[in-house]
Amino acid sequence: MSHPVLACPDLIRFEGDAPHLVGSRCDECGEVYFPATTSCTRCTATRMRTHDLGRQGSLWSWTIQGFLPKAPYDSGETPETFKPYGVGYVEMTCGIKVESRLTVADESRLKIGMPLELTLIPYRTTANGGEVFTFAFRPAASV
Amino acid sequence: MANDVAIIGIGLHPFGRHDALSGRAQGAIALRAALKDAGIGWDAVGVAYGGSHDAGNADALCNDLGLTGLPFINVANGCATGGSAMASAVAAIRSGMTEFAVAVGFDKHPRGAFNPHPRDWGLPDWYGETGLMLTTQFFALKTRRYMHEHGISEESLVRVAQRAFRNGALNPDAWRRREMSYAEIAESMPVNLPLRQYMFCNPAEGGAALVLCPAEIAKRYHPKPIIVKAAVVRTRHHGSFEVFSPALAAQQAPAPTVAASRAAFEQAGVGPRDIDVLQLQDTDSGSEVIHMAENGFCEHGEQERLLRDGDTEIDGRLPINTDGGCLANGEPIGASGLRQVIEICTQLRQQAGARQVPGNPRLGYTHVYGAPGVSGVTILQR
Ligand SMILES: [Zn+2]
C-alpha cells in the first residue's frame, strides 16, 4: 500500500501502515530531539543519530486554535470555512514533549494525561485535488 | 555607587492606532520628548540603541533628529528589544564611552496576530504551514500546563485582564480606556483556550525613549533622576519552555526570566519584598500570572489568592502594571519594554495622576519576555 503525501516526510517512518515520529538522539548525553537536529543544545556535542520516538504518548498540555492563522499557514481555508483545531504537547515514552495537532477540538474531550497515539490527517488539498497530510495525535484506542 | 547610571529623560508617543503617522514618526516624537525632559540636545548624545520590529531600522531616526555622526546601534530582540536597548545604553555609560546615551523604540504592526516565518527562526517550513507556529498557541499551552501544575483557575486569568483595563481607564495615554466586567472578559471569544479575546494584548503602534547619564551629574539635568540599580538581559537555557518549540526537552529548566530576575536582584542588592511598584510582561493574562512567580514576587500557585485579595491593585501591596500594561496599551514590539520603564519612572517621580501608587514608592521593577526566549529585567530607584 502506498503511503499518504506528507507536508513533512522527514518526520515520519512507517512500520507497516503505522506511522512513527522520527527525531535524533545525542551520542554523548542521550538527549532526544524532534525534529532531528545536527547538534545538542544540552551538551553542545555534534554527533547525533536518528531516533524513533514511537507513536504512543500522553497529553501534556493543549489548546484549541480558534482563529484562522495567517500565512505561512496554507490549509486553503477562509475565515468562513475555517474549523478550529486542537494543538497540544504530547509526552512521548522517552519523555520528550512533541508539539502536534490533535484530532479532537472539543474542550470537554481533552484532558491532561489522556493517552494518545500518532495518526496522519489531511490538512490541505493541492491544485490537482490531492490531499496533503500532516502528523496529529488522536485518543488512543481503548484497550 | 560611583558607577551608577540615571534616567534623566522619558518620552512616550501613546500606544494605539495612529493612521496618519509612520512608526518612525512616533519614535521621533517620543525621542524629542525625552530629550526635552532631560534638557539636552540631540547633538549631546554620544550613543543610541534603538529597535523596531515592523517599522524599519531605528537608526533612520537620525534623518529626523539630525545627522550628528553618533554611533546608533539597531537592536532586534523581539519583545525584549526595549530591555536590550536600555541594558546596552547603561553598559555604554558605565564603560565611560559617553555621558549621554539614548534607548529608543517604536513600531507599527499590521492588524491581527503576528505571523512569523519559520526560516527567520531556524525552523522548518512545515511548522508554519501546518498551523503550529503561533505565539498565541504558545501562551495558551504554557498557561494550561501551569494552571494544571499549580492549581490556578480561569478566575485568575479574568482578574488580570480586569485589573489591566481598570488601570488603563485611569491612564490618559492608554489605548484601551474602558473598564470591563468579569463576565465580559470570561465570556469573550475563545482565541486559544484557556485564553480568550480580552485576555490577549494586541499588536499596536507607538514610540518610547529614554535619555540616560552618569548618576553623579544627573541632578544637573533633571530634579528627579531615576537610578538604574540593575538592567539585565538573559536568554534561554536548554529545557526551558519557550515560544516556537516543536518539542520540549524531557527535563524542564527554569525560564530565562528566572535567571534575569535573580541577577537583577543580586546587582541591585534588594529583594522582591523591597519593590513598591512593578511591570510584568502581560502579552496575555496567563503570562502575567506565570511571571509573578518567575520573577520571585510570590510562590507558584499563590497568584490566585493575591489576585482575588486585590494585592496587585494600585493601592495593594504589589501594584502590577499600573498603566494598564500591554493588555490596555497594546504591544508595539520595539517600544513596549521602554513603556514599562517610563511608567515606573512616572510612578517614582510621583507624576502618575489618578493611577499614582500611594505611599511615595521608592523602588520599581520591570520585566519583558520575548521570542525566542529572551528576558529583560530592570530595577529602578528614585
Ligand atoms: Zn548531548
TrEMBL record, chain A:
Residue ranges that the Swiss-Prot or TrEMBL entry lists as coiled coil: none
Domain ChsH2 C-terminal OB-fold: 52-119
Keyword terms, alphabetized: DNA-binding
A GO molecular-function descriptor: DNA binding
Pfam family, one: zf-ChsH2
Ranges for domain ChsH2 rubredoxin-like zinc ribbon: 17-46
PANTHER family listed in its UniProt record: BLR3430 PROTEIN (PTHR34075:SF5)
Protein name: DNA-binding protein
From TrEMBL, chain B:
Pfam families: Thiolase_C_1, Thiolase_N
Domain Thiolase N-terminal: start-end pairs: 6-174
Segments forming domain Thiolase C-terminal: 256-379
InterPro entries attached to this UniProt entry: Thiolase, Thiolase-like, Thiolase_C_2, Thiolase_N
Name listed for the protein in its UniProt record: Thiolase family protein
Taxonomic source organism: Aromatoleum diolicum
